[in-house]
Design brief:
The structure holds 2 protein chains of 2 kinds.
Chain A lengths: L8 E5 L5 H25 L4 H13 L2 H26 L7 H18 L5 H30 L3 H21 L33 H18 L1 H11 L1 H6 L4 H28 L10 H11 L4 H21 L9 H20 E5 L3
Antiparallel strand pairs in A: 1-2
Helix pairs in contact in A: 1-13, 2-3, 2-12, 3-7, 3-10, 3-11, 3-12, 4-5, 4-6, 4-10, 4-11, 5-6, 5-10, 7-8, 7-12, 11-12, 11-13
Chain B lengths: L2 H30 L7 H18 L3 H25 L4 H19 L15 E2 L9 H5 L1 E2 L1 H19 L1 H11 L1 H6 L4 H27 L11 H11 L4 H23 L6 H26 L17
Antiparallel strand pairs in B: 1-2
Helix pairs in contact in B: 1-6, 1-9, 1-10, 1-11, 2-3, 2-4, 2-9, 2-10, 3-4, 3-9, 6-7, 6-11, 10-11, 10-12, 11-12
The chains are: A mainly alpha, B mainly alpha.
Chain lengths: 357, 310
């Protein structure tokens, strides 16, 4: 009918889609995505199989690799839980990267300037600071969106660059560690400002935060009245207004919470892993988080699973650097997977049938 | 500040605005047909790396530009298939294109970092015109791609408002089902618009790696693709206003660089923020303005077209 490229096939609307079918489509999309990206590797004369294998081996092929994958999973899952909340209301908050930086900034402030506080006060304080700073940063694009319908996709993204340069200013300027051999980083946090880790891994207890927030978000969207309001406002602003829900208020609250969760991710990263603020605190967690949220269809528990997979892909990417590949090439695989997931979505809502002659 | 300094800043502003102008014009075309493509940043990066690769190894900048056009068009083709045939969410597909392009360009460019270019676009003074005081130095002592971008604006303006093809393009973005009912092919128009849009984004990337700062650096577009998308709103989907916006942006960016040289005591990171903050503010104000005038945004922008649902 209108899928001209499919020749004698046509698509018909299907109202139901079984969980098994959904799962099958997702897995197929991921495999096709990896193959598509592999095609480019093949064209340039490299062996994609070797590349896949190296990524796989270094991420989940050893205990160390697995633990590093979990380390990467924490910021990815938190940022993704954050953006998924906004996506539920059809708010395209793609500023998680900047909200992550601002959360790290807020937490670092307390770690550096109130270093005498005991751990039991310090860590909650840093958490709150990360939460508020990330949330406020997301409010900046939320306000013009709520009142004048200014495109939040572009505005939230532009602010990522502003946040990045703000952080660069701090670590090159006033917050630079004088004993840091001129490297752009702050001095190491006092012990009171660091989240404990499991044994001799780098996995911090922030992983509990991930679980708590995932459960809380599941309850919020599934069982609370407000969670219901969010999805209604997302599908139709008119319907929401008619039902007496304030669109403006919901935009502001959802964006604040969305940014705040990414802010917590920033706090968890500086306090749990890096123990200082530095210019390179994120290999693009905020962008990968968008992909994870979409792959997981905004389901909080699926986000945990997909974050684990994407964390593994990132760890694999880092290990490729030793073989002369830029680690950011991993986004080639990520983008490619997302293409197929988006295209595959149509098969959830439609069926492919052979056209009758 | 003396006049020569102001002239230098304005001339540098035109250069800084040119890559954004190409990308913006491309996005104007795609959005006029009703397809929002947020993959501009990714298409620019792939354009930049392919232009630099081909331009440097063939020692022919024109060949580099040509390949960037093709590469940008092919990238856009992916978006076209996903959003037009598979009717996927245009925001999500554009984001995927940017993520993909960032990674692909980094992959293709591994090995190109630090290699000096062999063939670049250099300033060519236009005879007579470049002798005009002030204006000559700002506008007529630039490289060929700058001149081409201005000619392109004129051509697009003419096509948009004076030809049948332009009318068809605009109609597809406003009311696709009416155009369909008249027997025109929506799919062809949208495919063409998205692909030409991608080619121009590729040209913007080529300008970065062959003229603006001739080299390849990972992520060298540094958000210019996003600024280009934001400028489309400022431009109210009009090519001539895109020119104005891109140059205005270019001047702000070059002002940022020159303020420091002038000894203004603002930390460089704040000056680097300037273009993004400026674009953010412009975005907020122009959206309010277009909303009040009730004009601008193509009515069908972002909405997948399907016959059965018209």
């Amino acid at each position: 009918m209108n899928l001209k490229l499919l020749g004698s096939w046509e698509i018909k609307k299907a109202n139901t889609s079984s969980a098994l079918k959904k799962f099958g489509i997702s897995v197929t999309s991921i495999v096709l995505g990896l193959l598509f990206a592999g095609l480019f590797v093949l064209i340039t004369g490299k062996d994609p199989l070797k590349l896949y294998n190296e990524i796989f081996q270094s991420s989940v092929g050893s205990i160390y690799g697995l633990s590093e994958t979990l380390v990467e999973m924490i910021p990815l899952a938190l940022c993704s839980l954050g953006v998924s909340l906004a996506f539920r209301m059809q708010l395209w908050n793609i500023g998680a990267e900047g909200q992550f930086y601002m959360g790290a900034f807020g937490a670092t402030y307390f770690a550096l300037f109130f270093s005498d506080l005991p751990k039991l006060i310090m860590l909650p304080l840093m958490l709150i600071a990360g939460f508020i700073c990330g949330g406020l940063w997301a409010l900046i694009p939320a306000i013009p969106k709520a009142f004048w319908n200014v495109n939040e996709t572009i505005s939230s993204l532009l602010l990522n660059y502003v946040a990045y340069f703000w952080m660069a200013y701090l670590v090159y300027g006033p917050w630079k560690d004088p004993k840091g051999n001129n490297f752009p980083l702050t001095k190491t946090f006092p012990d009171s400002a660091t989240i404990p880790v499991f044994g001799n891994t780098r996995i911090s207890y922030a992983i509990f935060l991930v679980l708590i927030i995932a459960v809380a978000m599941y309850i919020l969207i599934k069982y609370s009245k407000w969670g219901y309001e969010i999805s209604v406002s997302g599908s139709s602003r008119k319907a929401a207004n008619y039902a007496g829900m304030s669109y403006v208020k919901n935009v502001l609250m959802v964006m604040f919470l969305s940014g705040a969760v990414s802010g917590i991710a920033g706090m968890a990263e500086v306090s749990g892993v890096l123990h200082r603020l530095q210019q390179t605190i994120s290999p693009g967690y905020g962008y990968t988080a968008i992909l994870i949220a979409l792959l997981a269809r905004l389901n909080p528990f699926s986000i945990l699973l997909v974050s684990f997979l994407m964390g593994g892909l990132l760890v694999g990417g880092f290990s490729l650097q030793t073989s002369g590949f830029p680690s950011s090439m991993v986004s080639m695989f990520q983008g490619s997977i997302l293409f197929f997931v988006l295209a595959g979505e149509i098969f959830n809502n439609y069926r492919l049938v052979r056209k009758k002659a | 500040m003396d006049l020569n300094y102001i002239i230098a800043i304005l001339a540098a502003g035109v250069v800084a605005g040119t890559p954004i102008l190409y990308a913006s014009l491309g996005e104007v075309i795609a959005e006029r047909a009703g397809i929002l493509n947020l993959g501009v940043e990714g298409m620019m990066l792939v354009g930049a790396v392919s232009a630099f690769y081909v331009g440097t190894f063939t020692e022919n900048k024109w060949l580099g530009l040509l390949v960037a056009l093709i590469a940008g068009g092919l990238m856009a083709l992916i978006h076209a298939v996903i959003t037009i045939n598979f009717r996927a969410n245009q925001v999500a597909s554009g984001l995927a294109l940017t993520i993909f392009g960032t990674g692909l360009s980094a992959y293709l460019g591994r090995g190109l970092v630090g290699i000096p270019p062999t063939s670049t676009f250099k300033a060519v003074a236009v005879p007579v015109l470049s002798q005009i005081p002030v204006i000559g130095k700002i506008f007529f002592n630039q490289d060929i791609m700058v001149y081409l971008s201005v000619i392109l604006v004129a051509i697009l303006w003419f096509v948009f408002y004076k030809t049948k093809a332009g009318l068809l393009l605009r109609a597809v973005g406003e009311n696709p089902s009416a155009v369909d009912a008249l027997g025109h092919n929506i799919f062809f128009v949208r495919y063409a618009a998205v692909i030409i849009g991608g080619m121009l984004a590729g040209a913007g990337g080529a300008y970065l790696s062959l003229a603006y700062s001739p080299s390849w650096i990972e992520n060298m577009s540094a958000g210019r693709g996003w600024i280009a998308v934001a400028l489309v709103i400022f431009a109210v989907w009009d090519p001539s206003r895109a020119l104005l916006g891109a140059w205005l942006f270019g001047v702000i960016a070059s002002l940022g660089l020159h303020l420091q040289a002038l000894g203004v005591m603002i930390p460089s990171n704040f000056l680097q923020m300037l273009p993004y903050l400026f674009t953010f503010i412009v975005l907020v104000f122009t959206t309010r303005e277009t909303k009040n005038r009730r004009s601008g945004t193509p009515a069908a922008l972002g909405i997948p077209y399907s016959r059965e649902e018209r």
